[in-house]
Structure formats: structure tokens, C-alpha cells
Design a protein that fits this description.
By secondary structure, this protein is an alpha/beta fold. It folds into two domains: 125 residues, 3-Layer(aba) Sandwich (Rossmann fold), CATH 3.40.50.1390; 35 residues. It is 53% helix and 13% strand. It has a five-stranded mixed sheet, sandwiched between helices. Strand 1, helix 1 and strand 2 form a beta-alpha-beta unit. Helix 5 packs antiparallel against helix 6. The termini are far apart.
């Protein structure tokens, strides 16, 4: 059986690109998650792991979609190898059914982790630089007065969401998040 696994880091991100590629590959069943790759508990990955049998194939869009770190990717690869399961990464053009594929897997896993670390370091440096200039970043604070007005307008059932957003400057997401 060919299993697909797709993951994005946040609820706001879209799985469609990965799902299209996995469907095009011919996956029989696709597991998908919207959660950060740094979390150890990923229910869909764990569910897929329980179903794997010798001769199965796991297809992912990119290596960083399945593993938390190089160590985790190598642990997964070793587990797949012991189970007799192949791993294919579409973008990385990797297939662990070959010796070269297994070598390349370990090499690409290291590069993926390096890329994540570099991005993280750049982000931290950028934030420190901004703080040094007096900018704290993040979302601006929502005015309590405007939020109360938006909630009152919403409760009146007279105004549309668009009208409330335009009148108060409160975003639709903030409004919905504060409706009880």
C-alpha cells in the first residue's frame, strides 16, 4: 500500500500543494496534519505508523514534512527499514529502496535541519535588531474600547461583519475570537 503524509506548521497554512503531489503520485491513503513539526506527538503520523506493513511505501512532499530533526528523520528511516517500508520524498527526489537513496536521505536530512537552523538564527537576529531600535514586533494591541463596540454591534444583529470591521477597525478574526 502507498501511504501519503502531508503536514503544515500552522492552521493558517494550506495543504493543497502537498495533497496534489501525493495524489498525483498515486497514494492509496493520505494522512494530513496541521501542527508544528517540532511537536513529538503527531496523531496522524502515529496512526499511519500503526498501519505500516512490510512492502508498504510512504510518500512525502519534502523531508522536513515528516521529521522534527535530522536525528528524528534517521530514526524514522531506520524504523522504516526494519519494517521493510520504503520512503519516497517527491521534491527531494529520494527513494530509500536503493543504497544511494538511503545515503542521500541521510544527507538531505542534515541539509534540511541546517536550513531550518539558519532561518531560525536569521529570525532571532532580525528580532533582536528590531528590539534594539525600539520595535517589539508582534501584533498591535487591540483597543478594548473598539473591541467592546464591535461586540456590542455584533450582539445587536443590525450590522454585518463587514460593517463592524470597517466601523471599528477590529479584524474579523479578532471579533470571532472574542465572541462568547
Amino acid at each position: 500500500m502507498i501511504f501519503g503524509y502531508a503536514r503544515v506548521s500552522t492552521q493558517d497554512q494550506n495543504l493543497e500543494l502537498q495533497l496534489d503531489a501525493l495524489n498525483k503520485f498515486g497514494c492509496d491513503r493520505i494522512f494530513q496534519e496541521k501542527m508544528t513539526g517540532t511537536k513529538k506527538e503527531r496523531p496522524q503520523l502515529e496512526e499511519m505508523m500503526k498501519l505500516l506493513r512490510k512492502g508498504d511505501k510512504i510518500v512525502i512532499y519534502k523531508l522536513d514534512r515528516i521529521g522534527r530533526s535530522t536525528k528524528h528523520l534517521i530514526e524514522l528511516s531506520d524504523a522504516f527499514e526494519k519494517m521493510g517500508v520504503e520512503l519516497v520524498s517527491i521534491v527531494d527526489q529520494l527513494d530509500t529502496s536503493t543504497a544511494m537513496g538511503r545515503f542521500f536521505f541521510r544527507f538531505m536530512a542534515s541539509l534540511s535541519e541546517l536550513e531550518r537552523d539558519i532561518i531560525s538564527e536569521r529570525t532571532k537576529a532580525g528580532l533582536e535588531s528590531a528590539r534594539a531600535r525600539g520595535r517589539n514586533g508582534g501584533r498591535p494591541k487591540v483597543s478594548e474600547k473598539k473591541l467592546k463596540l464591535a461586540l456590542k454591534m455584533y450582539g445587536s444583529k443590525i450590522y454585518s461583519i463587514r460593517e463592524i470591521v470597517e466601523a471599528t477597525g477590529i479584524s474579523q478574526a479578532t471579533l470571532y475570537r472574542n465572541i462568547h
